[in-house]
Design brief:
mainly beta, single chain
Length: about 45
Amino acid sequence: MAELVDVLAYYECACGFAFVDQYPRNATPELQAACPACETPGVNE
């Protein structure tokens, strides 16, 4: 049985704030962390 491993992902928000956060490997972009600056969901572009 494989372990669930959190990975670090780099997010760049439309507001210009970039941050690093963890999310499960099987997470979709819709489930990414929200931007800590403006609370908009992060999107990797």
